[in-house]
Write a structure and sequence with these properties.
By secondary structure, this protein is an alpha/beta fold. It folds into 2 domains: 5-217, Rossmann fold (3-Layer(aba) Sandwich), CATH 3.40.50.300; 226-285, Alpha-Beta Plaits (2-Layer Sandwich). Helix content is 36%, strand content 28%. It has helices at residues 43-50, 72-78, 94-105, 109-122, 138-150, 168-183, 195-198, 218-224, 237-245, 270-273, 288-300; strands spanning 5-14, 17-27, 32-36, 58-63, 79-82, 156-160, 187-192, 203-208, 211-216, 228-234, 250-256, 259-264, 279-283. The strands form 3 sheets. Strands 5-6-7-3-8-9 form a 6-stranded mixed beta sheet, with helices on both faces. The longest helix is centred in the middle third of the chain and has 16 residues, at 168-183.
């Protein structure tokens, strides 16, 4: 199979800090692949190496059939990269920002007209085409950044935490736009700290301290988790959490809304673990957050 993206044991240091440690994965054409983890996990550094913005200390990347470290121009023609802080010009309107980036990409004539019209329609930004970028909401700025990134019709789109700090409705709209782009054949590699966004990816790699600790489809990761997951409800959840954390057989216990998510080691019994406590315990399918917590605890053990 010819992959759209290959990361082969990528590593990168910044002084004494090992930001990325032997990260390897592949992305198939037309796939949405998520690099998922908290701040400092190594997601952005990995993305920048794939885009040719940073050279790896070890390992190599293959993007659209090219090596970013030595074939940067070919890679730039094939990809779109949307950084966390995309370079919009606040005193220019939506359309003027698009025209500026079209000039940079050499997009002219009827092709420019058609691309702008399609992107404005897809993002529902036509009514705001004459509004200065500085006066757009956070969600609208993200849509404008995406439109500017897509003007040269890239084959692969790299997005670095594209919805960070954006309201939930705008986050949902942004992902609906991505899903439409993927249906048209675009490949997407996205970094995110939002576990609900990770659920929208075809496959994910959960990262921690520069490493990929587990990867696969969200469904595979949930089905293959060795620990049993329970939602536990009772009075005074904080005190209950401390008590459960001290009991044998508990892998982890964390607050999750109005309940605790309790992970039990494979041979542990929920009846023994909750003995003597006035609680309700329900076996549930683990969430990606539960999987990330379980794998981090496993590394620390």
């Amino acid at each position: 199979m010819t992959y759209a993206v290959e990361a082969r044991a990528l590593s990168r240091r910044f002084g004494a800090v090992e930001a990325v440690r032997e990260v390897s994965f592949t992305v198939a054409p037309g796939e949405v692949f998520g690099l998922v983890g908290p701040d400092g996990a190594g997601k952005t550094t990995t993305l920048r190496m794939l885009c040719g913005l940073l050279d790896p200390d070890q390992g190599e990347a293959i993007v659209a059939g090219y090596k970013p470290a030595s074939q940067g121009d070919e890679v730039k023609d094939a990809i779109g990269y949307m950084a966390q802080k995309f370079g919009l010009y606040g005193d220019l309107t939506v359309e003027e920002n698009m025209d500026f980036y079209a000039d940079l990409f050499g997009i002219t004539g009827q092709l420019r007209v058609d691309l702008k019209a399609r992107l404005l329609k897809m993002t529902r930004m036509q009514p705001f085409r004459s509004r200065p970028a500085a006066k757009l909401s956070g969600g609208m700025k993200q849509k404008l950044s995406l439109m500017c990134t897509l003007l040269h019709k890239p084959r692969i789109l790299f997005l670095d935490e594209p919805t960070n700090g954006v309201d939930p409705v705008s986050r949902r709209d942004f992902w609906l736009i991505l899903e439409e782009l993927v249906r048209d054949g675009l490949t997407v590699v996205v970094t995110t700290a939002y576990l609900d966004e990770a659920e929208r990816c075809n496959r994910v790699a959960l990262m921690h301290q520069g490493r990929i600790i587990v990867s696969g489809t969200p469904a595979e990761l949930k089905a293959n988790l060795p620990e049993k997951c329970y939602a536990v409800r009772g009075e005074n959840l904080r005190a209950l959490k401390q008590e459960l954390a001290s009991r044998q057989g508990v892998a982890s216990v964390e607050l999750s809304g109005a309940a605790l998510h309790l992970l039990l080691r494979p041979k542990a019994s929920i009846f023994e673990v909750t003995a003597g406590l006035e609680v309700e315990a329900e076996r549930i399918t683990p969430e990606l957050e539960d999987i990330l917590i379980a794998e981090i605890h496993r590394l620390a053990a």
